[in-house]
TrEMBL record:
One GO process term, biological-process aspect: DNA replication, Okazaki fragment processing
Function: 5'-3' exonuclease acting preferentially on double-stranded DNA.
Pfam families linked: 5_3_exonuc, 5_3_exonuc_N
Entry annotated with the keyword Magnesium: no
GO MF terms held by the record: 5'-3' exonuclease activity; 5'-flap endonuclease activity; DNA binding
Residue ranges of domain 5'-3' exonuclease in the record: 7-276
UniProtKB keywords: DNA-binding, Endonuclease, Exonuclease, Hydrolase, Nuclease
InterPro entries: 5-3_exonucl_a-hlix_arch_N, 5-3_exonuclease, 5-3_exonuclease_C_sf, DNA_polI_H3TH, FEN, HhH2, PIN-like_dom_sf
The keyword Coiled coil belongs to this UniProt entry's keyword annotation: no
Protein name: 5'-3' exonuclease
């Protein structure tokens, strides 16, 4: 059990946040030896702000153990293919040269602080988040800049997304009403909507000629993706010839895309003892944290975060 129903679990889409920190904090922010630490400092300040503003009782940093899982690539080879580093292997994501060295520092800082990190081999952070959110008996805040996780929004279970499109300080709270207002479909249908529309940022082609508006219209009229496909196969259904043809022509894509777009809600998590614990109020390894603070010039961000954590006692 993660906690009592009065508690709130916060799940960080960690890579999404440190990428945002990297591009949002000037690279001129450096360690004493001149190494850029803008992503590290930015992420620590993000966490400070989130804990202060949203008051989680538990916090888990969810990691991409596999940013491009084979089961998704097998289904759709173009999945995230444009992000593969040209000079690396097929499983290596292209990461800015000055960001890559900061990722181990981020991981070490989270460990020293006592903020659990969870990644599962063969799965993305999205899948870890989905599994934790599905199992949680508490309210859940998912912090991400990834719209794919809107499919997890569930008012009945108090699962919402803190969408960092404009940064952590100005994040948007996405509940079911927000999903409906943005896209014209309920959150429960978001994955089907996204499958039809596609997503160029993830290498998902979608159905040719079907954008947000048409995808929403089809989902609303026919209920879900299966209903849309049944209508396309039924000459009596009220579909324009062009839409019918496009949906039928995309049959091969539509056969496999749902398994790529939908997050996995039952990944094999590590033992609960490794991640199921209350928000720390003091560092798990003060000596290691002090070493990191001095080596990387993180005194300000570390002290700010420790102050906010201590205030949660």
């Amino acid at each position: 059990m993660i906690g009592l129903v009065t508690e709130r679990l916060m799940l960080l889409d960690t890579a999404s946040l440190y990428f945002r920190a990297y591009f949002g904090v000037p690279e001129s922010v450096k360690a004493p030896d001149g190494t850029p630490v803008n992503a590290v400092r930015g992420l620590l300040d993000f966490i400070t702000r989130l804990v202060e503003d949203r008051e989680p009782t538990r916090l888990v940093a969810c990691m991409d153990a596999d940013w491009r899982p084979q089961f998704r690539v097998d289904a759709i080879p173009s999945y995230k293919a444009h992000r593969v580093a040209e000079e690396a292997g097929p499983d290596e994501e292209e990461i800015p040269d000055t960001l890559a060295p900061q990722v181990p520092v981020i991981e070490q800082a989270l460990d020293a602080l006592g903020i659990p990190r969870v990644g599962v081999a063969g799965f993305e952070a999205d899948d870890v988040i989905a599994t934790l959110a599905t199992r949680a008996p508490t309210a859940v805040d998912i912090v991400t800049g990834d719209r794919d996780l809107f499919q997890l929004v569930d008012d009945a279970r108090s699962v919402r997304v803190l969408y960092t499109v404009k940064g952590v300080a100005a994040h948007e709270v996405i509940d079911e009403a927000a999903v409906l207002a943005r896209y014209g479909v309920p959150a429960s249908a978001y994955a089907d909507f996204a499958t039809l529309r596609g997503d160029a940022s993830d290498g998902l082609p979608g159905v040719k000629g079907i954008g947000d508006k048409t995808a929403a219209q089809l989902i609303v009229e026919y209920g879900d993706l299966a209903g849309v496909r049944r209508a396309a196969a039924d000459p009596r259904a009220r579909l324009t010839p062009a839409r019918r043809a496009r949906i039928v022509e995309a049959s091969d894509y539509l056969d496999v895309a749902p398994g790529v777009v939908r997050v996995v809600r039952d990944v094999p998590l590590p033992p609960a003892a490794e991640w199921d614990r209350p928000l720390p109020t003091e560092p798990a390894d003060p000596r290691a944290l002090d070493t990191l603070r001095r080596q990387w010039g993180l005194t300000g961000p570390v002290h700010r975060l420790l102050d906010v954590l201590a205030a949660r006692r």
